[in-house]
Write a structure and sequence with these properties.
The protein has helices at about 70-85, 120-135, 175-190, 245-255, 285-295, 300-310, 320-330, 355-365, 370-380, 445-460; strands at about 15, 20, 90-100, 105-110, 115, 140-145, 150-155, 195-200, 260, 265-270, 275-280, 355, 405-410, 415-420, 430-435. It is α+β, with helices and mostly antiparallel strands. A hairpin with a 2-residue loop joins strand 1 (about 15) and strand 2 (about 20). The N and C termini lie close together (about 10 Å).
Length: about 450
Amino acid sequence: MRKRAIRVLTAASVVVAVGYYGLADALDLVPGFVTAAGERIETAPFPAFTPLAADAPPAVAGPDADAPIPDAGVVAKLASTLASDPQVGGARVGVSVIDVTTGRELSNQGADVALTPASSVKLLTAWAALSLMGGDHTLQTKTTLSGHTVTLVGGGDVLLAYDKGNPTSTAGRAGLGDLARATAENLKAQGVTSVNVALDDTLFSGPAWNDGWEAGNEEFVAKVQPIMVDISAQAYGTYPADPALHAAQVFTQHLEAAGITVDGDAVRAASPADASEIAAVTSAPLADVLGVSLKKSDNTMTEVEARLLAIAAGWEGSFTGATRAVLDQLRAEGFDVSGVTLKDTSGLAKADKVSARLLAQIVARAAGEQGGTVGRTLVADLPVAGLEGTLHDRFLGTGAAGDVRAKTGSLEECASLSGVVVTDSGRLLAYSVIVDGFKSGGLLDARAAIDNDLMIPLAAL
């Protein structure tokens, strides 16, 4: 047995028996809870959310290719203990644990039953988006000119900096101020000093709000539009009523500051077919953008990513097109999605139904040899327990800190955790656990049961 220590899983590639792979919610604004000493977590109030660390964690040793596979009977007993724990309040429990190297399922506790997984749905969206568009995919926000009208054209970047972009950052890589100044410079070169401003947000279609989201969820997701000022930097509950129009207003302010007179307010209008491009700014690549949306469990970013996927797949950029594109891509890659129901692609809708087995299978493929670049990116973009994102203060003081990497999921009556864990002996396992149907107010108890009954002892094997 290796000496137990808190190990940080990083985005660095590590060698496993079958190859290599990188280790690096719906409402997870409050990602965890304070842990007690020792190997048990007690239920406690929500803490404040801590922003992601600016610097990457240090690289450390990964799993041991020669480590023994945990006994399936022992793993199954852990899942059974969770299912019977009074803290889950009689809720339905689905658990699937898969040995990454062999593909062997070590636990099947209701694993094939489609349950509400909350933000673990984001794993489906992330895999599909990376598979179809590629991690290097970037987005352009541009301006065009037709007559005396400058049109700001949204291309799907919802991480635009308010003013100047930062080429070394993911959020805010492209800046609206930079775009306005470049636009002003080119306008002046053409002798144009006075314009009207229009907003073209026609890239997406259909409703900007999902009818499967409950009233009050406006606090946790903005209207789904193809251009926004850095949505990841905005606190929950403070989203603009019209994020795209807000971005146009910010652009207008910078354009005026750069010496261009703007007549009237920005209005919505598609860029004319005869318009010429004036200037453009480019986002960070999709692989990095997913690192922000998955770690923060950002619903808005995920819904935007899914609509971009839909457009790339030839569907309309709507909720319907997005869910269809996600399932089509998974199906094309051999995943069984016959029992899946998706009302959205972020997991905020209670009507979403996914089995723990499918989630674990996606993670297992991502973590194994077949995962390739897509898989390494997906796993590396998941937060590390005790370190970052929605897991930054979860599992602290336990042996699972640093060994668990996961997508969290939380709704009023369900909780989930899906990702990878390196056991104490060094074996790499993929897993998904869903607890669905506990009474309102039981979220923290359900999380504590997941951690104490399953994840902490699983990491200790």
